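re: ur question from yesterday

yeah so i grabbed the chain u mentioned. its 185 aa long if i counted rite. heres the sequnce exactly as i have it in my notes:
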Amino acid sequence: MFTYQLNEDLYLRMYTINDAEALYHLIDGSRDHLKKWLAWVDYNTDVEASRDFIQSTLKGVSETGGYPKTLGMFYKGELAGTVGFNEVNQTHQYATIGYWVSEKFQRKGIVTEACRGIIHLGFNEMGLNRIEIRAASENKKSRAIPERLGFTKEGVLRQVEIVNGEFYDHVVYSMLASEWLKKDI
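ran it thru and got these structure tokens back, copy pasting raw so excuse formatting
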């Protein structure tokens, strides 16, 4: 099973079906916190929905050339959230990263470190040339991640996502492999 140790407290691991119950409870415990920015939260209504999500992520391995597309973030052995490639384009060698962390695990640097790890994986193992992070323009916490990691703000996609009946603009950030290697972050 794919596991990527980031530091002594944090590792990324490919989900297994056995994670479905823990994933559902993590989402359910942060439902109000997550649903402001994430449209899928209302569709994760039971353990079976989490199981279906995990099964779909396991199928996504072929899209990434054999690497897991979605990983659980485990902090001190406990599931804290998810980080992964929402989109991977092998032909043009780019991917888009998505992430979320439960309310309980915020402000511990987990998402920044998890993104740093998956960016390393994307550039160094998968041979990507470009990685994007998109975040709702009003979601300051999510936007802080690419800004902290030195991504370039490219622009705004207007009203590109609808969540809870409201349209949101997305700020698009990017990092190129050549830039990441120079940063040595």
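noticed a couple things. The two ends are 26 Å apart (CA to CA). also The first helix runs from residue 20 to 29.
anyway ttyl
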